[in-house]
From TrEMBL:
InterPro entries: Dimeric_a/b-barrel, Rham/fucose_mutarotase. SUPFAM superfamilies: Dimeric alpha+beta barrel. The lineage of its organism: Bacteria, Bacillati, Actinomycetota, Actinomycetes, Pseudonocardiales. Pfam families: rhaM (PF05336). This is L-rhamnose mutarotase.
Length: 118
């Protein structure tokens, strides 16, 4: 079962170019850790000074996999570069840096039965 996650954070205007440069070449070890932690289809979108992140989780224990990511030394070094570029929108409830968003609607893929869509 796929779980979808959306989140927001503010991009500090004076750090915009640095953040974009970093994300033009995300470190392979960071990407590998995300995949090992059951993260799929991770995207970050930019609008003015807001970053919107979206990913799909395909594992069985999201909290444990998030803890694995946070404990990874290469990810910690990555965050040491990217975190100063960002400003949290929330009071960091539960230690969350990005502000979680509630899913309101989702268009699922059509299933085909005997060559016909439902």
């Amino acid at each position: 079962m796929v779980q979808r996650y959306g989140m927001l954070i503010r991009l500090r205007p004076e750090k915009r170019e640095e953040y974009l440069r970093l994300h033009a070449a995300v470190w392979p070890g960071v990407e590998r850790m995300l995949r090992e932690a059951n993260i799929r289809n991770f995207s970050i979108f930019l609008h003015d000074d807001l970053l919107f992140g979206y990913y799909e989780y395909v594992g069985e224990d999201h909290d444990a996999d998030q803890a694995r990511i946070a404990a990874d030394p290469e990810t910690q070094r990555w965050w040491a570069l990217t975190d100063p570029c960002q400003e949290s929108l929330s009071a960091r409830e539960g230690g969350s840096w990005w502000t979680p968003m509630a899913e309101v609607w989702h268009l699922a893929a059509e299933s085909v039965v005997d060559g016909q869509a439902p």
